[in-house]
Amino acid sequence: WTLLRHAELSVENTFTELNLKNKQIINDQKGDSYQVVHTSLEKGLLIIKEDEMEKHGRYFRYSNAKLDTETTFLFGDKEGIEIKYFSDGKKNWEYNYSKGMKNGVYAIFYQKNGQTYQTGSYKDNIKDGEEIQYFENGVKKQVKTYKDGKITGKVIQYNSEGVKISENSYD
User: Cα–Cα distance between 19 and 2 in angstroms, integer?
Assistant: First the structure.
């Protein structure tokens, strides 16, 4: 059975639409072999390489029959965006990965209204760059900067109207 280009398996419904069965072995256009994971808890593909299997491509995890997390893997390592959902389907957080490590921007959200709670960035699994926390109304709550996982420079805090209430230096 030949699969469409693997990148086309980006939508969770594709597994049902293509009638992919759990533990089914499929091949892509390049000749790589995959084992399908299609259970009530997970949907995804395991690439088969020299008697080993690793997650590869979009992978979906479920909790109580609802989408819990979607992750992209490249030969077993997280690669690209990973999104975690609250039980009501709203985004909880999203992180970017490269070679299995957090790299790039991330965002964490409030469940109640979906507003952004916090944004920041990582470099090789270590916080690096500006991190901003927000009140539920979207106004900045706190701004700080990380370098190699350590707070540097000023940490500024604001009240819910956006007025600066404190500033501390960490240099």
Answer: 13
* Stated pTM of the model: 0.85
* Gap between the Cα atoms of 45 and 143, Å rounded: 40
Is the model more confident about 20 or about 61? 61
SS (H, E, C) 63-95: ECCEEEEEEEEECCEEEEEEEEECCCCCEEEEE
pLDDT tens-digit series, residues 37-54:
888 899 888 888 877 899
Strand partners, 29: none
100-126 burial: b if 16+ Cβ within 10 Å, else e = eebbeebbbbbeeeeeebbbbbbbeee
Furthest CA-CA distance within the chain: 63
Q: How far apart are CA 164 and CA 38, in angstroms?
A: 51
pLDDT at 5: 43
Burial of 148 (C-beta count, 10 Å sphere; 0-12/13-18/19+): exposed
Backbone φ and ψ for 8, nearest 5 degrees, come out as: -75, -10
Output the six-digit token pair for 99.
Answer: 């070679």
Measure the CA–CA gap between 149 and 171, rounded to whole angstroms. 14
Contact 143, 155 (CB under 8 A): yes
In the chain, the N- to C-terminal Cα span, in Å, equals: 60
